[in-house]
Amino acid sequence: MSPSSDRATTEPLAALVAVFAVTLGVALYAGVVDEAFGTLDDDRNIATPTADAVEQRLSSAGVVRPGRLNSALDTVPANYHGNATITATTGERWSSGRKSPSNADTETRTVSVRVGPGAVRRGTLTVRVWR
């Protein structure tokens, strides 16, 4: 066997080992980064971005309109269930969606609520999201 044929089989094998090592390193790095920053779907709070979308759908000129509550839940992500509740300081309460479990991701924020023609009161919007 000539020295050139030994070199011809060794170099591709070394290249394959190097590619495998780099691929393994990148996969391990991605796993560590994903775990460190908690970017897995099951670990993140999905209620915050959903509440942003629900509030945007409910609002007109910065005032939440309870009559739009049912259509606002269309913003809940696929494969999730949602519940949205608006409570005004006048004691009025509007809710849409299923009853949420106790472990649902929850986001509550202060909003301006239209309680009647020309009547706006302070209130809260609570959005709960779960699988």
Note down, in words, how this protein is organized.
- It contains 3 helices and 6 strands; from the N terminus they run H-H-E-E-H-E-E-E-E.
- It has 131 residues and is α+β, with helices and mostly antiparallel strands.
- Strand 1 and strand 2 (63-64) form a beta hairpin.
- It folds into 2 domains: 1-44; 45-130.
- It has helices at residues 3-37, 47-58, 69-72; strands at 59-60, 63-64, 81-88, 93-97, 105-116, 119-130.
- The N and C termini lie far apart (65 Å).
- Keywords: Membrane, Transmembrane, Transmembrane helix.
- InterPro entries: DUF7285.
Question: Could you write a compact summary of the structure shown?
Answer:
This protein has 131 residues and is α+β, with helices and mostly antiparallel strands. The chain has three helices and six strands; from the N terminus they run ααββαββββ.
